[in-house]
Amino acid sequence: MDFHVNASGPVVFWSWPYDLSNGTLPKGGEVISGRITERVVTGDQMKENNSNAVADAVDYKGLPADKSRTGGWVPAALILGIEVCERLSTMGIAVNLVTYLGGTMHVASAEAANMVTDFMGTSFLLSLLGGFLADSFLGRFLTIAIFALLQSLVSCEKANGLQMGLLYLSLYIIALGTGGLKSSVSGFGTDQFDDKDPREKSQMAFFFNRFFFFISIGTLFAVTVLVYIQDNVSRSWAYGICCIAMLLAVLVFLSGTRRYRYKQSSGSPIVHILQVIVAAVRKRKLALPSDVQFMFDNFPENSKIQHTDQFRFLDKAAIIVDGESKCADDDPWKLCPVTRIEEVKMMIRLLPIWATTIMFWTIYAQMITFSVEQATTMQRSIGSFQIPAGSLTVFFVGAILITLAVYDRVIMPLMKKQLGKQGFTNLQRIGIGLALSSIGMVAAALAEMKRLSVAKETVLLHGGATVPISVFFLIPQFLLVGAGEAFIYTGQLDFFIRESPKGMKTMSTGLFLTTLSLGFFLSTFLVSVVKSMTGGGEGGRQGWLGDDINHGRLDCFYGFLAVLSALNLAAFVVCAAWTKPQSSKGEEKLSEIDP
């Protein structure tokens, strides 16, 4: 960058780039990153711009983001809008898919449940792909725009019994769109708040709860209005609404382009992780220095992460041998900075919590599969109105919304006033969610025992299509697991974003979403194993998960899940005790949100 200084006049900057390692800016100057610019800035304007500038963020022109013109709740609301419509689209299809597969396409009960969980599992698994593309190539803004448009183009496809191939194609293109969206939406939303500003940091503390609250609104609309339209009007109309909603959401999202704050990608986190591992393996025979000061670290002082003693093997990647530069990493596959190594350690520390939260989403999967099938066999009338089976999940979504509202408006303010805290920690919220899901499975097992006893006395003995027991017996399991999701989803999202390194926020969000994916896949696996081990036999016994749940023992399956969930909760408590927040040098804290 060439510059001209006039003591009594303005400072003028021309032509990017400028190598800061070989020169300095004049006093009062500023760096304008990544664009060719020509600007005239007075001294007073410079002070004002510096006070309004957001660290590590730029506007849509690539200039330093002005706090007064970018970010905040308005852009965050536009981002929330596209997530609401994504929930509307995905859940509008998924929550009633099991009844469509069973009633229209005559798929067996367990197989229909597995098709739904495979679809949902793939949706969240593909968030890793979306996170990789966002971190490495596209950035969060383009990733959201592209995958939202992709999802909107296929939501209006309709498949009937003769179009199974088209059904699979449509579902998995939607899954691709969902994966790309979810990996970036929450991170891009937090980009709109400056955690160095106390006021905006306080706003960010409420973002995760409100983020989940609004996407639950989308789910609520899906399980009520859309499910009713699917069952009583036309599935084509329902899917058409999903398509139009996604297209409108894309337009609304793009309308905020000038207001968003953008954070530049620092390269592929997967490559960075591999570089550290490869460099450590290459130097595995070397002895570690007695002092960390003798190890390589070329990060700026305010960006360095404090060295930790965990996973010492990885530290060998920072050992400087003869012929290697002490100023720059010419070959990152042989020599990695200490800060880069600590970033990898941070990701490793996420894994125990990651593993112990998978089980919750296996429990969740039952709410949109077997619990919906239970509802189809029970009395669902209120006067002359017949409640669609898929709409029973309104109690599940209602529990989420009520829990979030009470937590946001009552618990958080009360804890801040009495204890000086912003609410439960992210790990505490996860633990509460896991505990509620375990209790929810116990409630589900008891409700199914009651349903089966009535079915044996009526339907199986005298015939008939409906078990004479109210569908409202299922409400406790929906309420408990729904409240659990309100705690665990916000806790997980908060944990994975806060505790991950700066350049790996989108990837860590994708890692969080894989817990949902693996939870659905684990459900598929457990259903297949249980059906195989308990099905068949003499006397026409169908096992726990028979094609007709009135002849099965779904209560035993729920009880099995309750035991697994309780064991998983114990494992989580151990892992949470092992997980400790790490602080870095200077002002930066690893526990801070800085996506």
Protein architecture, described:
With 595 residues, this protein is mainly alpha-helical. It folds into three domains: 65 residues, no CATH class; 413 residues, Up-down Bundle (Growth Hormone, Chain: A), CATH 1.20.1250; 68 residues, no CATH class. A three-stranded antiparallel beta sheet has the order 1-2-3. The longest helix is centred in the middle third of the chain and has 35 residues. The chain is globular, with a radius of gyration of 27 Å. The N terminus and C terminus are likely disordered. Its main location: membrane. It holds the Pfam family PTR2.
Short description:
This protein has 595 residues and is mainly alpha-helical. The chain is 60% helix and 5% strand. The chain folds into three domains: 2-66, no CATH class; 73-264 and 347-533 and 545-578, Growth Hormone, Chain: A, CATH 1.20.1250.20; 269-336, no CATH class.
